[in-house]
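Researcher: I'm preparing a figure for a lab meeting and need a structural model of a single chain. I don't have an experimental structure, so a prediction will have to do for now. The sequence is pasted below. Please return the structure as C-alpha cells so I can convert it later.
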Amino acid sequence: MSDQLTHLDEHGAARMVDVGAKPDTERVAIAGGTVYMQPETLRLIRDGAIKKGDVLTIARIAGVMAAKRTSELIPLCHPLPLTHLDVETILDDEANAVRITATARTVGKTGVEMEALTAVSVAALTIYDMAKAVDREMRLSDIRLLEKRGGQRGDYIASDK
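Model: Understood. Here is the structure written out cell by cell.
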C-alpha cells in the first residue's frame, strides 16, 4: 500500500492529480453496499407496494445517473467517459436487506472506483428516500470497493469478497 496521498502537492495543498502522461487502459471497478430494513419494508419493496413507486428500478436508475455526475459531486475527481455502468439490487430475506452492486467501466487514464461507489451510495439513499415513510430505521451499510481492474497500481479484490 502506498504511503503517499496523491491529491496533495509537496506543500500539503489539495490538488487534482495530473494523469496526462498515463496511458489509456481499460478500467473496471465494482462496489457494493447494503440497506438493512424491517422485514415488512422488504416485503413491501418486493411486492411493489411502496406508494412512491418501483423502489428497485428507481434506485438503479438513480445510481446510474449519479455515477455519470461523480466529478460534479466529488472535489478533484476527474470527469470520465463511462463505457458501461450497471447497478444491481438483490433482496436478501435472511438479512432483511437490499444488497446493491455497481460495476463501472471506462477506457482512460484513471480509474472508475469513485463512479462505482457513487452509484451504490445514491442507489442506497434512493431506497431510503422511497421507503422512509414506512421505515425510518433503515441502515445504509458496508459501502465499499469490492474489486478494481486496470491501471498502474494493478488489480484489487477485497479480501472478504
